[in-house]
Each structure stands twice: as C-alpha cells, then as structure tokens.
Please model this.
Amino acid sequence: MSDKKLKDLPWQDFKALSLKEKGEYFLAPPYHTLIAQQFTREKLEELCNLATRIKRINKRREGANFLKTLLSDKRAMLYFAQPSSRTYLSFNAACQILGLDTMDVRDSSTSSEVKGESPEDSLRTFSSYADLIIMRHPKGGFAERVAWMMAHTKREIPVLNAGSGADQHPTQALLDIYTLQRSFENSGGIDGKHVAFVGDLKRGRTVRSLAWLLTLYKNMTLYFVAPEALQISDDILELLDTAGTKYEVTPDFASVMPKADAIYMTRIQDEWDMQNESSEIDISDFSIRAEHLEIMKESAIIMHPLPRRKEICTDIDNEPQAVYWRQMRNGMWIRAALILTTFGRQGEVNKYYDDYKPVK
Model:
C-alpha cells in the first residue's frame, strides 16, 4: 500500500500528475474511489468475491438483517449534480443493503449553490453531516478536487466518484469487471478474452475506465469500433501501449463481431454536444440486431452501461447473450462491496459467510 497522502501535496502539483500517479494517492484510508487507475487486480478480485458473498447472504432474511447492521452507525450523502437514475438508485440500494442512512441533493439548484455558493463549499458543508460522500458531477476531475479538499480539512471523509465529466466513471467499470468475471467464471475467467467497445468511445467515460482495468488482465485484446469522429482518444491508447495490452482501432463492426467474447455497446453521448455535431454522424453500422447473433460466438456476451437508444434491438433482450440487465443489477452488489470496504468492515461479511455457508 502506498504511503502517499493528498494532504502532503498542493492542489496544482496533484492536478498535474498522470492518472497512474494520482492513483497512488487513493490507496490509504480513508479510501477514496475516484479513478480506475487506483485499482490493482488483487483489489478487483477481492471486491468481486465480496460482492458475490453479499449477494448470497442477502438471499435469506437472517442474512439480509445481518447485512443491515454493518453500517447502521454511518451516514452517506448522495450529491448528484448531474442527471442520473441507474447510478443513483444503485448506490442508494447498496446503502440500504448495508443499513447506511442516506441524504441526497440531486439538483444543485435546490442547494445554496443557487445563491452563489461554490460547489466546493457545498461539499464541505455536506461533509459535516455525513461519513461518506457519493458524488456525480458534470465537471471532469471535480471529484478529485473534493477529495483533495477533504484531505486538507479536520474531518476527512471518503469520496466515491459516481461519474466525473466525460473522463471517469470508476464504479461503472467495477460493475463491468464483475459482470465479465461472473459471465466467464466457467470459461477461464477474464484473462485472454477479446472485448469490443462500440459506439461513442470518444466521450464514453465508462469505456475509458473499463479499458484501463482490462490492462490488469493477461493476454487481452481490445477492439475500439466507432466512426472516426467518435473513436477512442489517444490518451487511452497511450495507456494501453504502456501496459502492453493489444488493441485494434477500426470502423468495421462486422469484422469484429465473430472475434469478440464480449461486446460493450454505448449510446451517442450527445449531452456533451456544443453545436449538435453528433446529429451529422452516421451510426447505422454500429448497432446489434437479432440477425447478428448468428455471426457472433455462441458464448459471447453483449453489455451496455445504459441508457440505450437504438444501438441494441429490443428483440434480443431475452437472449442468453444479452447480459446488460444483469450487468445493471450487478452494480448494486459491487457498490455495496465497495462501500463496505471503504469503511474497512468487509471482514465481518467474510466471517459470516464462512460460518454459515449461505445459499448459492
């Protein structure tokens, strides 16, 4: 574990660090979750195993009641300054599973920010009432700023990034890894798999975070399939080059479909459009329809962070390859595991599980 601490570094010096260098500052308690680059493979496997144990314990009333005692002495603030339904509800449900009381601000116009208060001051205020801040903000890097600010206060509390601008969405990447692990647990795990990312890769923060986490696995091949205007950015490719992860950048989805073990679909992220430029891009060749299942591997899975538009035909929603609904539910379990680990109480779940052998 790194002994580097945010309080020892001025903001401008911290801001200038690379993502990998920043990740070294988020390992020591209180355990902030801000960027994908802070995770090791060992930590991912620990979180995934814990999520499965929480899920199995929760199947029985006795187990569900036990889980609700684990964080009944804590409070969480859900600060969502950007529209969200899935991520908000997933985190809220995870808190409920663990008995964690919640407060929320889901629109900054209902807070004192409408009076001119800075977002930093708002978060500083919220930290007086809560033991954990779960935040989603349209400004890239703002969660890092808040964590740095907390480190320079007398009451430092953990910050979980639930989406930061167009650059990071680490907990979505965690649930994606968990979905991949569960999907391939009987076929060698994630190692050696071919994963295709399709759609708006330039602005898809889920893709940015997951692509990095996949560099922690062996013999991976990644495909980035998109129109040129929406293709993955060079900074991600540079990270992959540094990690030695194989990848291919292509607009030819048809050629990639038969090779992929997992196809990760994304929608057009036109909420970031400044002049409605996405409307001029032809995306008709970057969708999955029922007839495509015949050319995909029978064991392949189709993922999507949701919400979707027309990039996945609803006719395949109940096909075995379609795991995006399961993927969404997995978010609740992996976020519960993350929150529990944030407070260092995962040992209580592991002991309960080993003693009582819950239903699988």
Residues 83 and 106 are 8 Å apart (CA to CA). The beta strands are 75-80, 101-105, 132-137, 159-164, 194-198, 221-225, 246-250, 262-265, 301-303. The chain is about 35% helix and 10% strand.
